[in-house]
Specification:
This protein has one domain (4-116): Arc Repressor Mutant, subunit A (Orthogonal Bundle). 41% of the residues lie in helices and 29% in strands. The chain is built from five helices and six strands. It has a three-stranded antiparallel β-sheet, with no helix packed on it. The chain has a three-stranded antiparallel β-sheet with strand order 2-4-3. It comes from Natrialba asiatica (strain ATCC 700177 / DSM 12278 / JCM 9576 / FERM P-10747 / NBRC 102637 / 172P1).
Length: 117
């Protein structure tokens, strides 16, 4: 069963800031399977520099993770990213926002990887 966790820590600002940036939601949707920044940039049709900035914000917020490295078509080592959550709910009814998130399980990642091949 997917894990649902609550967050009420000081990272609320970091998460909200990352989600509020243009293209962040698109990157998270596209990163359901491991992808390089270059692939994400091409898939979403955004400049690579913008993509790298959004990736950094999403990694800092804990919404995206670097899963490792692979060789690009040009033979360079490149980082591969995948989102860490499938759902995120923000509650603004208190003094501080709280988050409820459905984290991706490793089993779901493996299954999705097999389906993509």
């Amino acid at each position: 069963m997917p894990r649902r966790t609550q967050r009420t820590d000081t990272n609320s600002t970091t998460v909200l800031s990352a989600l509020g940036s243009k293209y962040s939601a698109e990157i998270l949707c596209a990163a359901g399977t491991p992808k390089s920044a270059q692939t994400l940039s091409e898939d979403i049709e955004i400049p690579i520099a913008t993509c790298y900035r959004r990736i950094e914000e999403l990694v800092d917020a804990g919404l995206l993770t670097c899963e490792g490295r692979q060789l690009s078509e040009e033979g360079r080592r490149t980082n591969i990213y995948r989102r860490t959550v499938d759902e995120l709910e923000v509650d603004f009814s208190d003094e501080q926002p709280t988050f409820s998130q459905k984290r991706r399980t490793e089993a779901k990642n493996r299954l999705q990887d097999k389906l993509e091949k």
